[in-house]
Design a protein that fits this description.
195 residues, Serine Threonine Protein Phosphatase 5, Tetratricopeptide repeat, mainly alpha
């Protein structure tokens, strides 16, 4: 709808107010899918700040409150939004989930699914960088595994940081099967770069 052009003309505070007025954070999921479809057609594209605000308003509460796998509507909306605005999405939503991995397994599974199927290669690297900024935990290992499953070419400095992190934290994961799988995946995928 042409009315959506207003999203490009709002200040951040106005956009937050508009989202609150429209109750986007609690709108029914089928409408969420339609709204994200409209966002894809919007020209010009949303600014980074506007997309970040919308990612937070549309998805953050829903994702952090998941206690079971997301509905197909929510997954469709997430995939649609990620296809055009994956950078702000990663910095807002994925970062929030990674900061609180103890919240629940569903959030971690969702991030893994997004990494495997939705995010652009440069955003997969952003997710890995975000993971490596915090102490590794059993809950975060599947996210790193999902990143490696994409078999993307990692920049040397990011690969070095991954290897260094895995080496430093090895004693804490002495009995972890997931950690062993992760090390094997690194050695297999990046064997020519890991000495």
């Amino acid at each position: 709808p042409p009315e959506l052009g207003i999203l490009n003309n709002c200040s951040p505070i106005q956009l937050e107010g508009l989202c609150s007025f429209l109750q986007l954070s609690v709108c029914p999921e089928p409408f969420l899918v339609r709204f994200c479809g409209w966002l894809l057609a919007l020209t010009p594209n949303l600014s980074y700040t506007s997309a970040a605000i919308l990612a937070e308003q549309l998805f953050l509460r829903r994702v952090l409150s998941l206690t079971q796998p997301p509905s197909r509507h929510l997954m469709a909306a997430l995939a649609s939004f990620c296809s055009k605005y994956s950078q702000p999405f990663c910095h807002v939503l994925v970062a929030a989930v990674l900061r609180e991995p103890g919240k629940g397994a569903e959030q971690t599974k969702l991030v893994c699914e997004l990494v495997e199927e939705c995010l652009e290669p440069h955003c997969v690297q952003v997710v890995l960088s975000q993971v490596l900024e915090m102490p590794l935990s059993e809950q975060l290992l599947p996210v790193v595994q999902a990143v490696l499953g994409r078999q993307e070419v990692l920049p040397p400095e990011l690969l070095d940081l991954l290897v260094l992190t895995l080496c430093r934290q090895a004693p804490a994961f002495a009995a972890s099967l997931d950690y062993a799988k992760l090390v094997t995946a690194v050695l297999t995928t990046y064997q020519s770069q890991v000495s």
